[in-house]
């Protein structure tokens, strides 16, 4: 156990890319309405619990903003009385940008209520945020040395006090010290040293237990995604085991009508990506038909999950897709083979904005990208004649984007509303208005993006790249009833 803990501790101190809602991309992004205002919210969680989260609110649309407040609400805490909101202060030199810091005291799911008050009225946006310990903060060497010196002085001072009390405390005023008193003082100091040593050993053992509990129970480590491909008669099905994920944060909640959003990315080529939606087979087992267009090879799997508790997470795994054989008969190995979900989509081939049938996609701006800077990744879709293509609703959104760093250390699933889970957002919205809450399991994104969602063919995704390097982004939109995917390579600087 100690060896395993030391290995885990080394992994954390080396900066392993542990994240809950995404891989290597811990910050939360939301862009949408706060009543009559349009806001972009960036939440940078502390990574430890309790910890201080950094909140930035940019008011993109709205007049005469007088005050912006942020309120953290844990679970169903609003029914028990939440703390008063904090005022977000204007950021000097940045018009429309406000900042605040909030303490997240518990592990689990919070909602950050962002309230904007101004000339256009008052509006609130609910932003779901995971509050999970994903790392262990090391103590600075200087502070450790200082505490060691101070602790040594306290121990030495305590022993000296015991010796002085036994040697001189009972002596008559003006009388000299006797050998008995001196002997008693030495014996007392030895006993005090032994007692303090025992106390220090006990404290060390207690701290080791606390650290072990933190590393094994409180620290969030994504559950491994176990996957297996069954192939018979030329048909393939991918089976996923999600028992570990459901066991930790509770049952799954549909997000955009799907319990699981699964992304497959072929490595190391990154020349094939699929966005699939497994369905429950039995218990914790989920299955999905593998598109015949996907080439054989090793694929990295990213499964986006939202739990009824409001926690959203991405679990990661890998699978090897075998070479397909010609169909020789029924798929004996697949009991009741699954039909493909009409919302499943994929792209095989080199990067480019060609969407097929003359449709095209281009990135609207080529401005340099930098790490840890919030920005909007904007694209425009055109038809065969070069005219703007009206975008239709794809699972309640104008589009979806998957962002991955070339080395796999970062993966994020984005929408025009950011990286938040719409299902988690609906969970907290329902708690804020329990009387008006819809039926359990209702599609949370319904009504957000009625088709056509963008007549001018434009779509943008708010995001902040956590690291510099080479990235690939797959942008998925629905035009003329077909889901089409554009692929773009991005270089992100410091």
What do we call the CATH topology of the largest domain?
Immunoglobulin-like
Strand order in the sheet with the most strands:
1-2-3-6-5-4-7-8
How many domains make up the 3D coordinates?
A: 4
> Shape from CA axes?
elongated
Q: How far is it from the N-terminal to the C-terminal residue, by CA?
A: 39 Å
Radius of gyration: 29 Å
Mean model confidence by pLDDT: 85
Helix/strand class: alpha+beta
- List unreliable stretches of 5+ residues: 1-19, 327-334, 435-452
Q: Please work out how many helical segments DSSP would assign.
A: 5
Strand content: 35-45%
CATH class of the largest domain: Mainly Beta
Instruction: State the helicity in percent bands.
Output: 10-25%
Q: Which quaternary structure do these chains form?
A: single chain
CATH homologous superfamily assignment of the largest domain? Immunoglobulins
């Amino acid at each position: 156990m100690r060896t395993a803990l030391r290995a885990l501790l080394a992994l954390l101190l080396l900066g392993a890319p542990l994240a809950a809602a995404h891989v290597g991309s811990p910050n939360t992004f939301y862009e949408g309405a706060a009543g009559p205002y349009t806001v972009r919210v960036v939440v940078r969680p502390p990574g430890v619990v309790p910890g201080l989260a950094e909140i930035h609110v940019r008011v993109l649309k709205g007049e005469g903003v007088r005050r912006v407040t942020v309120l953290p609400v844990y679970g169903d805490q609003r029914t028990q009385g939440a703390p008063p909101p904090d005022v977000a202060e204007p950021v000097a030199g940045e018009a429309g940008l406000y900042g605040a810091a909030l303490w997240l005291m518990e592990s689990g799911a919070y909602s950050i209520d962002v309230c904007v008050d101004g000339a256009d009225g008052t509006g609130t946006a609910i932003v779901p945020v995971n509050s999970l310990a994903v790392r262990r903060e090391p103590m600075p060497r200087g502070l450790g040395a200082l505490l060691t010196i101070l602790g040594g002085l306290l121990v030495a001072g305590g022993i000296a006090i015991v010796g002085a009390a036994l040697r001189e405390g009972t002596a008559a005023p003006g009388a000299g010290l006797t050998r008995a008193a001196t002997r008693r003082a030495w014996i007392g100091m030895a006993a005090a040293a032994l007692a303090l040593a025992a106390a220090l050993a006990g404290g060390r053992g207690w701290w080791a237990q606390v650290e072990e509990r933190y590393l094994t129970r409180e620290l969030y480590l994504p559950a491994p995604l176990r996957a297996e491909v069954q192939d018979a008669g030329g048909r393939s099905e991918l089976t996923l085991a999600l028992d570990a994920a459901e066991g930790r944060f509770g049952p799954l909640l549909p997000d955009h009508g799907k319990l699981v959003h699964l992304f497959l990315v072929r490595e190391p080529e990154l020349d094939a990506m699929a966005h699939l939606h497994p369905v429950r087979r039995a218990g914790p087992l989920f299955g999905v038909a593998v598109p015949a267009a996907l080439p054989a090879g090793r694929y990295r799997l990213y499964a986006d999950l939202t739990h009824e508790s409001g926690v959203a997470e991405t679990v990661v795994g890998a699978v090897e897709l075998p070479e397909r054989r010609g169909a020789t008969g029924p798929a004996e190995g697949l009991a009741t083979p699954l039909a493909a979900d009409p919302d499943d989509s994929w792209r095989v081939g080199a990067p480019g904005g060609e969407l097929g049938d003359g449709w095209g996609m281009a990135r609207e701006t080529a401005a340099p990208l930098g790490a840890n800077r919030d920005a909007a990744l904007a694209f425009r879709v055109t038809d065969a004649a070069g005219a703007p293509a009206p975008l239709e609703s794809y699972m309640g959104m104008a589009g979806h984007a998957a962002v991955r760093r070339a080395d796999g250390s970062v993966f994020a699933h984005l929408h025009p509303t950011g990286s938040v889970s719409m299902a988690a957002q609906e969970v907290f919205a329902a708690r804020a208005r329990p009387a008006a809450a819809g039926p359990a399991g209702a599609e949370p994104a319904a009504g957000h993006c009625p088709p056509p969602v963008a007549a001018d063919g434009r779509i943008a995704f708010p995001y902040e790249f956590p690291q510099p390097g080479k990235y690939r982004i797959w942008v998925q939109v629905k035009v003329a009833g077909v889901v089409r995917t554009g692929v773009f390579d991005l270089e992100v600087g410091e």
